């Protein structure tokens, strides 16, 4: 059975591998805010994680996010 046949089945349920290979193109900027937990929490710090589109035409939307930052941490999928 081909992948296409399996995906087209009425009772299709994605496998873990299907989910890992799924890709959704990021459009614009998606911001997630979080704070440190526990006793290490310092003075109400808030961290912001931005998921940004990497395509050339998306870059102008996020370059301003670098203004006033103290650190930049890049996250990437291990398998890509």
TrEMBL record:
SUPFAM superfamilies: P-loop containing nucleoside triphosphate hydrolases (SSF52540), Transducin (alpha subunit), insertion domain (SSF47895). PANTHER family: GTP-BINDING PROTEIN ALPHA SUBUNIT, GUANINE NUCLEOTIDE-BINDING PROTEIN ALPHA-5 SUBUNIT. GO terms for biological process: adenylate cyclase-modulating G protein-coupled receptor signaling pathway. This is Uncharacterized protein. Keywords: GTP-binding, Magnesium, Metal-binding, Nucleotide-binding, Transducer. The lineage of its organism: Eukaryota, Viridiplantae, Streptophyta, Embryophyta, Tracheophyta. GTP binds at residues 20-26, 51-55. One of its GO terms (molecular function) is G protein-coupled receptor binding. GO terms for cellular component: cytoplasm; heterotrimeric G-protein complex. InterPro entries: Gprotein_alpha_su, GproteinA_insert, P-loop_NTPase. Mg(2+) binds at residue 26. The keyword Nucleus does not apply. Gene3D superfamilies: P-loop containing nucleotide triphosphate hydrolases.
